Amino acid sequence: MLGPRQCTLSQVAPLTPPLVLVFGPVDPSGADGLPADAVTCARLGCHAVGAVTALTVQDTAGIEDIHPVSPELLDDQARCLLEDMPVQAIKMGGLYTAETASVAAQIAADYSQVPLVLHLGQRARPPADAVAEDEAGDLLAATLELVLPQTDLLVIEHLRLAQWQADGDIDIGEAPTPMHALLSAGAQWVLALGSPQRPGHYANLLLGPGGQTHTLPWQAPPDRNSDTGGVAAAAIAALLARGLDMPEAVRQGLAHAESCVAASFLPGMGRRIPNRISAP
């Protein structure tokens, strides 16, 4: 018989893990988006809840079609969760329309005490026509004008920053680099992946308040690899949810992503998928 201070395991209330709200698409291949980010969060001791921004038709070779959700549906999903559970971090990626970016920005502003990691992905594919080009321009403008000022950390590949600058999509003004311009536009921290340091040498650069700069190791991903920035962004969001400060969360998040990418596998005829299950 149990004494007055004894109890069975079933009577012990389980601890609630840190919660991460993920805005992103449902990628049926599991290479990216909500399914993948949920695994990353779980590996790092967090529970992911999701606000679906789009449903995609895709396999490992690429995306065939994207079906964005309505702004109203995105707003309902996110607020329903946020009013029910206290999340410790938010990770955003895959905002496909200017309208959904506007909704995401308003939600982030209403929950400004929650750290937000914004991932803007790899270099964009060229628009198929003039309408698509206009929509892409509107999305970028809404993201930079509305979402970026709510962002604690922007994760972006150096190649995409270079593309924006070359195409005239961003005006850096008097800023010494595009990263500094993004800080001036409202981001607290900017992480540029694969930044060239000198011929043949690259690094991940973290730029923060007051010009704080951290140079972190970068490893070239295996050939035919899918986007790896999403792994890093999700890992960093999970680590922020666990209470780490930004530089340490970035350092550990990048190391975790590197392990996932190093163990990536090739399940189909297209790109490799980071192995989020076997990473430490």
Give an account of the 3D structure.
The protein is an alpha/beta fold and 280 residues long. The protein is 36% helix and 22% strand. The protein has helices at residues 33-43, 71-82, 98-110, 130-147, 158-167, 178-184, 229-241, 246-262, and strands spanning 19-26, 47-59, 62-68, 89-92, 116-119, 153-157, 189-198, 201-207, 213-217. It has a nine-stranded mixed β-sheet with strand order 3-2-1-4-5-6-7-8-9, with helices on both faces. The radius of gyration is 19 Å and the shape is globular.
Describe how the helices and strands are arranged.
Blueprint: E1 19-26, H1 33-43, E2 47-59, E3 62-68, H2 71-82, E4 89-92, H3 98-110, E5 116-119, H4 130-147, E6 153-157, H5 158-167, H6 178-184, E7 189-198, E8 201-207, E9 213-217, H7 229-241, H8 246-262
Parallel strand pairs: 1-2, 1-4, 4-5, 5-6, 6-7
Antiparallel strand pairs: 2-3, 7-8, 8-9
Helix content: 25-40%
Q: Uncertain runs with pLDDT below 50, 5 residues or more?
A: 1-5
Shape: globular
Give the N-to-C terminal Cα separation.
41 Å
What is the radius of gyration computed over CA atoms, rounded to a whole number of angstroms?
19 Å
Number of strands: 9
Structure keywords:
280 residues, alpha/beta, nine-stranded mixed sheet, 36% helix, disordered N terminus
Give the gist of this structure.
The chain is α/β, with parallel strands linked by helices and 280 residues long.
